[in-house]
Specification:
This protein is mostly helical.
Length: about 120
């Protein structure tokens, strides 16, 4: 891959390599791309956090309590049954959309045992 850079960026890359922190221009570019990726993910996280804060402000919350995961699972089941697409980022990571229920040892299964509910 060939990349055309302005003389200013070429000088910055060379200065960074000359500092001894990186062995090559490729390493500098790789690190820069990693930092760019991280910054973009942090921006996305900030947007997602703002969505959550806005939902809290509107009262669109599920209070945390003994039945929290039971309610979340019920909502996930309803979503599955509706056939609507769901965002995997908002479904508990250990929730399994099948008849088997949560995987043994998962947070959901452990919580279900704590509140006296069978975890399927």
């Amino acid at each position: 891959m060939n990349v055309n850079l302005s003389p200013e960026f070429e000088a910055l890359i060379q200065k960074t390599v000359d500092s001894g922190r990186y062995a090559s221009a490729s390493e500098v570019i790789e690190q820069a791309l990693l930092l760019l990726d991280r910054a973009e993910r942090e921006e996305q996280l900030g947007r997602e956090i703002q969505i959550g804060l806005d939902q809290i402000e509107r009262g669109e919350v599920i209070p945390y309590g003994p039945d929290f995961w039971v309610r979340v699972e019920r909502m996930a089941d309803e979503l599955k049954e509706s056939g609507d697409p769901y965002d995997a980022a908002v479904v508990p990571p250990d929730f399994v959309f099948d008849e088997g229920g949560p995987r043994p040892g998962s947070d959901t299964e452990v919580h279900a045992r704590k509140v006296g509910r069978r975890a399927s």
